[in-house]
Design goal:
Layout (H helix, E strand, L loop, with lengths): L10 E4 L2 E4 L2 E2 H8 L3 E5 H15 L4 E6 L6 H10 L2 E4 L2 H9 L7 E3 L6 H9 L4 E4 L2 H14 L3 E8 L21 E2 L3 H9 L4 E7 L10 H19 L6 E3 L16 H15 L5 E6 L1 H4 L3 E12 L4 E5 L8 H5 L5 E3 L9 E6 L8 E8 L6 E5 L19 E6 L2 E6 L4 H4 L8 H6 L6
Helix pairs in contact: 2-3, 2-9, 5-6, 8-9
Bound molecules: pyridoxal-5'-phosphate.
């Protein structure tokens, strides 16, 4: 049985069972039930400081990409540490406000910002819009004009570099929907700089996610610097360079560069190119919260299929979609491993009626009905991508701090699944003119 743990230093074996900080995971499962997301506060603090430390000597803003884990308590924790936020919807903006965090440190990314979302962000006086298309630029100008407000903008440039990650999380290639074309950037900057409704403050890119090498970041940085050269020649000087997010984490035995190494590599480029004085911005999601979380589940049945053995758990693709969506390998361990070695290869699968509903393939495990298991490094793109498919209730979430644990999201109950639905009668349908008769 593979009991090695990824780089979740706050998750460790003690007395034959797995702990988060100073709390045994089995106690949390007994108290809150499964499936259950458990996060270590210390792991998030450590991850944030791993960026903050190397950035300290420079002008910088370390943003958290809220979509990685949008729980209010996690947002609040990072906000208190000094983080800004990268958002992609009005919903995420409202979360930041609900968590009591500073919207002047918010950066708004995303290809499809609606009029309404742009208005909401202007009202919140956010730090900057990351513009992703010429049409969006026009829309931001129009909304700012209507509101009589100035919008701070940056352009998300598509640097056409290959992040060498899964195709679904590669975002900086010419064929991707993200960002504005590199060759179009200068023209758009000129247009923006002539608009009285705008203040042009920065440049940004985001080339992908789970990137395990500094080279794509360095390539993108060089390309952005070349654009800065061209902009300077056109009399446009920017305040910040935003490198996006994308730094990977360890799920199994990947060697991932630390933020210190990444920052050093980018500093070398910036200094060499004469942009050492620019504010450096990061929009990290996964690398701030990914290693901080575990997803607890209970074995429901062991089933010997004709060709495979299945370990059927109470946690499905609706609770954690990464394995099936990205073919992601995530470590799964029994929370209290048995002493005797009677392992079998099995597929760890969930209750959802889809063949794609799996969490791990060909895992050597010695578990039986009722056993508790943990899927590790589940802090990013886990709960935030969870859905109600198969009318399954969303899991609960717990934040551990030392020997204390607090529920930060209660388990959804069945009534909540359909509380927004409206049960119409035949007559109501008719009176709305929706049925023909
Ligand atoms: C998703 C996203 C991020 C965060 O990516 P990670 O890989 O989680 O660090 C940052 N910026 C933008 C624009 C994104 O869409």
């Amino acid at each position: 049985m593979n009991l090695s743990l990824p780089n979740d230093r706050e998750f460790a074996w003690k007395d034959g069972t797995l702990w988060c900080e100073n709390v045994p995971l089995k106690d949390l499962a007994a108290r809150f039930g499964t499936p259950l997301y458990v996060y270590s506060k210390q792991a998030i603090v450590n991850a944030f400081q791993s960026y903050q430390k190397p950035l300290e000597p420079y002008k910088h803003l370390m943003c958290f990409a809220v979509k990685a884990n949008s729980n209010l308590s996690i947002i609040r924790l990072l906000g208190k540490l000094g983080a800004g936020f990268d958002i992609v919807s009005e919903g995420e903006l409202r979360r930041i406000q609900a968590a009591g965090c500073d919207t002047s440190k918010v950066i708004f990314s995303g290809v499809a910002k609606t009029y309404h979302e742009i208005e909401a962000a202007l009202d919140a006086d956010i730090k900057c819009f990351n513009i992703e298309s010429p049409a969006e630029l026009d829309r931001v100008i129009a909304v700012a004009q209507k509101k009589g407000k100035k919008a701070r903008v940056s352009f998300r440039v598509n640097p056409d570099v290959d992040a060498k990650t899964h195709p679904y999380i590669s975002t900086g290639l010419k064929k991707n929907k993200f960002g504005i074309a590199y060759d179009q950037a200068v023209e758009l900057y000129l247009k923006a700089s002539r608009s009285p409704e705008l203040e042009v403050v920065g440049i940004d890119c985001h080339i992908g996610s789970q990137i395990t090498d500094t080279a794509p970041f360095v390539d993108a940085c060089e390309k952005l610097c070349t654009l800065l050269d061209k902009l300077r020649l056109n009399g446009i000087d920017l305040q910040h360079i935003d490198f996006g997010g994308g730094l990977g984490i360890q799920y199994s035995n990947e060697a991932v560069p630390s933020p210190t190494v990444l920052v050093a590599a980018l500093r070398r480029v910036l200094v060499k190119r004469g942009y050492g004085d620019k504010e450096m911005i990061f929009e990290a999601g996964r690398s701030l919260v990914g290693n901080s979380g575990a997803l607890l589940m209970t074995v429901q049945y062991m089933k010997q299929g004709e060709l495979k053995n299945f370990c059927i758990v109470d946690c499905g693709m609706n609770d954690m979609i990464r394995p099936t969506l990205y073919q992601a390998w995530m470590q799964i361990v029994p929370v209290t491993p048995k002493k005797e070695e009677k392992e079998t290869y099995c597929y760890v699968v969930g209750p959802v009626c889809e063949t794609g509903d799996w969490l791990g393939k060909d895992r050597l495990l010695n578990v039986q009905e009722g056993d508790l298991m943990a899927l590790l490094s589940a802090g990013a793109y886990g709960m935030s991508m969870a859905s109600n498919y198969n009318s399954r209730c969303l899991p609960a979430e717990v934040l551990v701090d030392g020997n204390r644990a607090a529920l930060i999201r209660k388990r959804q109950c069945a009534e909540e699944l359909f509380s927004d639905e409206i049960l119409v009668t035949d007559t109501q349908l008719g009176s709305d003119g929706l049925t023909d008769q």
